[in-house]
Design brief:
The structure holds two protein chains of two kinds. Chain A is an alpha+beta fold. Chain A has three domains: 174 residues, Reverse transcriptase/Diguanylate cyclase domain (Alpha-Beta Plaits); 54 residues, 5' to 3' exonuclease, C-terminal subdomain (DNA polymerase, domain 1, Orthogonal Bundle); 137 residues, DNA polymerase, Y-family, little finger domain (Dna Ligase, domain 1). Chain A contains 14 helices and twelve strands. In chain A, the strands form three sheets. Chain A has a five-stranded mixed beta sheet. A four-stranded antiparallel beta sheet of chain A has the order 9-12-10-11, with helices on one face. Chain A has a three-stranded mixed beta sheet with strand order 3-2-4. In chain A, β5 and β6 form a beta hairpin. Chain B has one domain. Chain B is 0% helix and 78% strand. In chain B, strands 1-7-6-5-4-3-2 form a seven-stranded antiparallel beta sheet, with no helix packed on it. Classes of the chains: A alpha+beta, B mainly beta. Chains A and B meet through α1, β4, α4 and α14 of A and β4 and β5 of B.
């Protein structure tokens, strides 16, 4: 060790950690007979479901996240489909967070299997940034038997792009010059945050490569992409000033939502309502736990032919009560859904959140009924906090 | 693939380095000696923890075992079947 520290004169040193095929790697670690085999982690293979992630062996066949399991099995008939271990993934992510905090006080969890670390200054303790990262990777390997790929860069954007360069188990150090060398010849879709729709829009303007986007006049882009033009122009040039924000410093949630893809498309309105009640209960429990009340309630409905609509209502008085959220969401479901249009996915969202301190809920119910409702919710919360969510259910709730 | 199960088992566990590890278990009258704990994690049920262990026995069979703190009970939750 003790080589040249390429990050020596960088004003900021940012690390992006991306766990390699996280869910699949977790399952392969648990059952080593899966090593070297195409493994797909998705929903219950007996029902319709999609690929959450897959092993690198399955990726060779063209299997991708978000693809239906049926389609994935067509591409790779010998693939082993596992329904996944959500609790295990969540626990492992919490252990990873603890490990990351051994190397930096500023850790931003970006998703269940990705995080940014601002290691500016900390890396001197380990001699170089690369040595810090090697030590961190070794600790992850030792404690969890999992590997990750890491990007080290002067910004979050370049660190994120760099971590995908040497997968699996790689480390890539990339400054802005390296970024331009590596990414300028590539298609615009290789940039972070550019999806299929934006790519098509850019292609229509004759912009195919990252270099073409970087050199395109931002004012011209504005005509097509509005406020997103500035982001597109900056990302192509590798410019990013955003900070790594630790979980404690993140702004409060702006909304809380739960949604579920139903096991089969539903036409029975009672079953739709019972799912809505279950979702309303989940949302209201989160509101009460975090001491918020919501002014706006929304529902999201996806039909069997994949058409998605959302409807919302702003309440006269904000609430954290399941019954009010449920009654509001029920009224937001258009009549044709169920009897005429089958439902594939349902979601309930509470937004326009206010801190609960000093708030008074009057609303749909009389004060006396609301007090009873609040007391019963509090009692149910205490029981659920002690014995788990499954211990008490509404009579009409989805089983 | 895994087959879901929910059957009580008797377990001999080792407590070392602030950790609990299953060493062998009796299921349906047969004793399975664990050669490796390949993974472990915890989940919450209310205020209680459920401890999960992915294990391999000496005949290379794969199992997932769980220990429910509240009920103080071990169960076999998954078994790998070809």
């Amino acid at each position: 060790m003790g080589g040249i520290d390429r990050t020596y004169d960088w004003p900021k040193v940012i690390v992006h950690v991306d766990m390699d095929a996280f869910f699949a790697a977790f399952e392969i670690r648990n059952a080593p007979l899966l090593k070297g085999k195409p493994v797909i982690v998705g929903g219950d293979p007996r029902y319709r479901s999609v690929v959450s992630t897959c092993s690198y062996e399955a990726r060779k066949y063209g299997v991708k996240s978000g693809m239906s399991i049926a389609q994935a099995k067509k591409l790779c008939p010998e693939a082993i489909v596992i329904s996944g271990t959500l609790g295990g993934y969540v626990y492992t992510a919490s252990v990873l967070q603890v490990i990351f905090e051994h190397y930096s006080p500023i850790v931003e969890p970006f998703s269940i299997d990705e995080a940014f670390l601002n290691i500016t200054g900390c890396h001197r303790i380990f001699n170089t940034a690369e040595e810090l990262v090697m030590k961190m990777k070794a600790e992850i390997k030792e404690r969890l038997s999992l590997t990750c790929s890491v990007g080290i860069a002067p910004s979050k954007l370049i660190a994120k792009m760099a971590s995908g360069e040497k997968k699996p188990d790689g480390i890539t150090i990339m400054d802005r010059d390296d970024f331009q060398k590596a990414f300028y010849p590539r298609p615009v879709s290789s940039l972070w945050g550019i999806g299929e729709k934006t790519q098509k829009g850019l292609n229509k303007l004759g912009i195919v490569t990252v270099e073409e986007l970087a050199e395109y006049d931002e004012r011209m882009l504005k005509g097509y992409f509005g406020v997103n033009a500035a982001y597109l122009s900056k990302v192509a040039r590798g410019l990013d000033c955003s900070e790594v924000v630790s979980y404690e410093d993140m702004p409060d949630d702006k909304s809380m939502s739960h949604e579920t893809t139903l096991v089969t498309d539903l036409s029975d309105i009672d079953k739709i309502y019972s799912t809505l009640l279950w979702l309303s209960d989940k949302v209201s429990r989160r509101l009460r736990r975090d001491n918020f009340v919501a002014r706006t309630i929304s529902v999201k409905i996806r039909s069997s032919d994949f058409e998605t609509i959302t409807r919302d209502k702003t309440l006269a008085t904000p609430t954290d009560q399941c019954r009010i959220i449920f009654e509001t969401s029920k009224r937001l479901i258009p009549r044709e859904y169920g009897p005429k249009i089958k439902v594939r996915l349902l979601g309930v969202k509470a937004s326009n959140l206010l801190s609960k301190s000093g708030e008074n809920q009057l609303s749909l119910l009389s004060n006396c009924n609301l007090d009873k409702l609040k007391l019963s919710s509090e009692a149910v919360d205490i029981i659920k906090n002690r014995y788990g969510d499954a211990i008490v259910k509404f009579a009409g709730e989805k089983m | 693939m895994y087959q879901d199960m929910d059957e009580p088992i008797e377990v001999v566990a080792v407590f070392a380095n602030h950790k609990m590890k299953p060493a062998r278990f009796r299921w349906n009258g047969r004793v399975y000696k664990i050669s490796e704990v390949t993974g472990d994690w915890k989940t919450d049920i209310g205020a209680y923890k459920v401890h999960h262990y992915a294990v391999v026995d000496i005949s290379s069979n794969f199992f997932q075992l769980t220990f429910d703190e509240r009920q103080t009970i071990w169960t076999i939750s998954k078994i790998w079947v070809e």
